[in-house]
Amino acid sequence: MRLKFALLFLILVVYSFAYNPVKSNDKDKALADNSKKVKVKKAELTAAQDEDDEGSKSLDEVEEDAGIDDDEQDDDEDVKEVPKKKSHVKQKKSKKPPAKKDKTRKSKKNDQEMRPIPESTSIPNMTSFDFFEMAREHRIDKLREIINDTPTGDIAKMRQITEELKDEIEEEDDSNEYQACNADTSPDNELCHCDVHEIDCSEITMESGDPYLRTLDVAIMKKDFEPITAKFTKNKISRLQNDKVLPKFEKFVSILDVSYNEIRFIDNDVFKPFTNLTKLYLSHNVLQTVKKDVFDAAKNTLHRLDLGYNRIKVVSDNSFDTLSKLKVLSLDGNPIKAWRKEMFKGLDSLEELSLDNCNIENLPADIFEYLPKLVKLSLRENPLEEIPAVVAHLKSLKDIDLSVTNLTEIRDHAFAGDSDLEEIILEKMPFLTVVRDCGFCGLPQLKTLILNDNKYLQELHPNAFGYIKSQPGHKSAAITSLQIHNSNISTISEHMVDYDNLKTFQVGGNPWNCNCDTQFMLEEKFAFKQDSVAPKCTSPAGLNGRLLVTVRASDACEDARFLGRSGRFSSVLGLALLVGFIAIGTYYMVSSGKLERLVRRVRKEPEVTYTNLQNAGEDFALETDFQPRPAEV
Ligand SMILES: *[C@@H]1O[C@H](CO)[C@@H](O)[C@H](O)[C@H]1NC(C)=O
Ligand SMILES: *[C@@H]1O[C@H](CO)[C@@H](O)[C@H](O)[C@H]1NC(C)=O
Ligand SMILES: *[C@@H]1O[C@H](CO)[C@@H](O)[C@H](O)[C@H]1NC(C)=O
Ligand SMILES: *[C@@H]1O[C@H](CO)[C@@H](O)[C@H](O)[C@H]1NC(C)=O
């Protein structure tokens, strides 16, 4: 027993000695750990300080603190981070003064601990618009409910609310008014260029203080100036505020260009005083939503609206509901996730729609159902692998641009619905290699086809526009402009289109194979004056590098050798020879009396043949058949 005790004691002593050496062995590591701890502590401290400073902190930073980034994918977000974010928002809203910092922090803690137990709070039919209509307080409550419920799918909704809250909080009245069009008072230092009916405040850099223009609140000093066009592009404007956009001159402005700024928020009533606003350019800003109310104010005059290259992810149904006068709309370059026909509802006059660079892989067949007048559609720079069916089936559509898409070939009847397309543009296609048999069939109205700069395009099928002898209306016969420059085409068929009808025919920059098939292009009528790069032969080797206009058909094609350069001439010669032979033959027969004998022999033939008799009999039988029968007694 005593031995055991002693042993235990010994082990304890050994252990206590052994412990320290281990620690000292790993001294470096331990040190590093320590400094890390210190750093973490420091970070915590600064974080705490930051929290206290929240009143002056932008929500962006708050959001970053919370680990949520604007550009991040919604799905990637950790739900756990959400409560933290929410409490930040609340703090920000309440704007507690720094003096009460301890209290603030405590209250935050309490807030988290004492949060009510989640009730059933699923809000399936809530849209962003509903949220917007609600009071801010109410929305915060909703936010809390959603957070408590923590359904991952609602994060997008929550983000929307915080965005809106942020927008409302951000940038309270900073009315810094500048004097513009002040050439008379300070001729060397005029802010904005004002001329005739245009005020141009683009790309302003000022010398004193903040060099950037962040407002549209400028005082126009020029007398009797009526700014019909107002340009404020490439500045750092972040908000369009009520009564702060060209105040007192609103009614003159017809064209307002505020593209390339940092606009994140637009007040609802900002366009109310703009009674003559027809064109509004808002592209290249950071707008996240399309607010119906904003554009409602200009609904009677607005013809053109450019919302391209913003950060719009969702266009809610009926967003453009009241813009029945709008003719041109651009939503280019926005990461819009879902395409539904309802988002275009109400755009009764829309003629041009641009959806370039929207990451569209396909479009629903009914997407443009509410656009009865859509004539022109641009889908450039989308990863389309097929031509969307709606393109071929939309009766009103006349111009389509499918350039820079992932199409690999133009298939048989690719556009043939019941299509009235007049212009098709397929430029700079990274994968397009071939236009198949009948690829442009069924396009009786097609006037312009542009296939420029398709470096892999090698083949245009001879029947690409319809069979050579096809029915009228089937062959695309109206074509007047065919452009295929800078592609990889070496041959095209003489019969592909009616080249005589072409007003524009550009073929430069292709590796032409100058042989009997392409000999027709060597005719004098083709001067290729519209080509910026004159077309050249690449093969055969003997003609490599020669301009098409300098090559004689006889050099390219053996058969053409004795018939001269013009193919047309050869056929004329052939016809002349044929007529000559017939004339000689006829003369010989007449002069030798053979013709007279022939005529006499024909006359001797019996006049009524067996078949004639039979036919007559049948006619008679028919006639009796049609006699009305006597009534039976
Ligand atoms: C949501 O649906 C409920 C009934 O399910 C209805 O009472 C409520 O008004 C709807 N809310 C909205 C915003 O449509
Ligand atoms: C409205 O704008 C047009 C140009 O779009 C201009 O001709 C017209 O004078 C403007 N009307 C007023 C009242 O300024
Ligand atoms: C389309 O092509 C681009 C390259 O041009 C490629 O990055 C993208 O993944 C393609 N998209 C699809 C859906 O194939
Ligand atoms: C161009 O076409 C030729 C065949 O006509 C082919 O051998 C070549 O690889 C093509 N070039 C490109 C860039 O596709």
TrEMBL record:
The keyword Iron-sulfur does not apply. Residues 61-79 have a biased composition (Acidic residues). Keywords: Leucine-rich repeat, Membrane, Repeat, Signal, Transmembrane, Transmembrane helix. Residues 510-558 form the LRRCT domain. Residues 1-18 form the signal peptide. GO terms for cellular component: centrosome; nuclear origin of replication recognition complex. It is found in: Cytoplasm, Cytoskeleton, Microtubule organizing center, Centrosome. The chain crosses the membrane at residues 569-590. GO terms for biological process: chromatin organization; establishment of protein localization to chromatin. GO terms for molecular function: chromatin binding. It comes from the Eukaryota. Residues 24-44 have a biased composition (Basic and acidic residues). This is LRRCT domain-containing protein. It comes from Caenorhabditis elegans. The lineage of its organism: Eukaryota, Metazoa, Ecdysozoa, Nematoda, Chromadorea. The gene is lron-7.
